[in-house]
Design brief:
- By secondary structure, the chain is α/β, with parallel strands linked by helices.
- It is 32% helix and 12% strand.
Amino acid sequence: MSQEAAPPPIPEGPFPFRQFVVKVHGRCNLACRYCYLYEGPDRTWRTRPAAAPPGVLDRTATRIAEHAAAHELTGVSLVLHGGEPLLAGASALGRFTGLVRERVPGSCTVHAVVQTNATLLTEPRLDTLARHRIRVGISLDGGTPAHNTLRVDHAGRPSWPAAARGARLLARRHPEAYAGILTVVDPDQDPVGTYESLLGLGPPALDLLLPHGNWTAPPPRPAGGGATPYGDWLCAVFDRWWGAGRRETRVRLFEECLALLLGLPAATESLGLDPFEAVVVETDGSIEQVDSLKSCYDGAAHTGLDVFRHGFDEALRHPGVAARQAGAAALAADCLVCPLLTVCGGGQYAHRYRAGHGFANPSVYCADLRRFIRHVAHRLSTESARAPTAAVSVPPAASREGSIR
């Protein structure tokens, strides 16, 4: 295993979309104080319908099926998103998922997941989702009330009691439908304490995401936190996860980093050079790029396309999508000479933005990513040296299913 790698090949592209993020409801029952979607620079959500009308969902199902057939896809990921998608009702989510499954070719499997804040999960809703084979991903800041103080409703009341009840109900009643928990890294919180608190909710997988920041609107850096507070946080959790002696849960970022260091493919938006293959449909039928871009500037995700007039192949030709699929060709010069290029991949696209200069910049988390990747590489090398005849076990690269937030 080496961090040094041959220059990456130039992607042939365009690559078909394999993940369809559908905004079934564009509003949220929470008012999280850090939310980039409703509190950030983008205001396009204000002019869109709260819930996707039946006509939008019907047309979206047809467009997904057309794309799957045209590209002979054997599987697609359908992410039911928001806002809070359960505001649309579990039955509505089931009906839409059923439409997609009915219309795609018989050789194409639809992997459906709803990404929720868990406050609206009840036994009947979970039973409905399970009946329609819709898995459930949960967004939380940790596994205790103290971790979730910024996740409040519109009256300022804490969401934790309802969210914790929903998460535990899911783990107990439908563990087969539990996709995992998404958590945004907070360097002000104890990393190991946060990780262990999340384990208490029994997730089969964790997504640890860096807060959406960029060079124009940098992420918060705690006083006295050193030069790489986010990298240090991830390293501490990695050591706890790696040293557990057993697989307590999957941590997608860690598995993907290990896979990339070993030269294996990894499906991730945060690391690597694999072409990005996700697209968003808003409640009015607009076809957009992923929500993370909305943390950069108003209208950053806009394409000018919609499901009524355009197929998804037209979105593949959009300059923004083409840049996301260009691999190393879209990266800054500093990234191209970095020995970690094939693992880091320039970091998350939205984190490269600088007003007046676009996205051809290193990630605002560049130093943190270097710290984390080199730490993982060192642990992997040390493990290999201790047991040179034993293969280091790395699970298959995680799906992006349910990880867009």
